[in-house]
Amino acid sequence: MRTIMNKAVAIAVVMALILSAGPVCAYEGRGPEGMGKERYDRGGKFEKISENLGLSAEQKEQLKKDREATLAKTKELKEKIQAARKDLKAELEKPAPDMARVNGTVTQLKDLMGQQIQARVDKVISLRKILTPEQFKKMQDLIEEKKDQYKEKAGRMGRSRNMPRRRM
After folding, report:
1. This prediction's pTM
2. N or C terminus: which one in the chain shows less Cβ crowding within 10 Å?
3. Which CATH entry fits the domain spanning 2-156: 3.40.50.150, 1.20.120.1490, 1.50.10.20, 3.40.50.300?
């Protein structure tokens, strides 16, 4: 009886971790593909940022190539993660889940999420190589500024950053 309870608690914890990681993983899929180019470059955001950072034509080209390569890589990872989550959910919804399959899928998910984190780190390293230290610092400042604006807007809308969104 106790073993069954331990397994049930372990499964619940794994599901909670997987479901809470969704919004974090979903962010990387935005761009010319995924969420749509209009959303990614709405109103010429890339041009505005390029101008603000004082990017050269060569830097712009390098960033575009880097973005395309990253999007292709992360899109594939995102699709694999979604498929693994779907498999895990289906297995956990069975009356008697196969724990070997559950554990195998969890291991696969951890590996895929690790690859996703590595892709983000690689992206930052790549940005550091393309941008000058001053441009990189200015970009970080712009990101922080946008985060602060988002937090203010979320606060005015009556929900904090930590509150989950309703899923329909």
Report:
1. 0.60
2. C
3. 1.20.120.1490
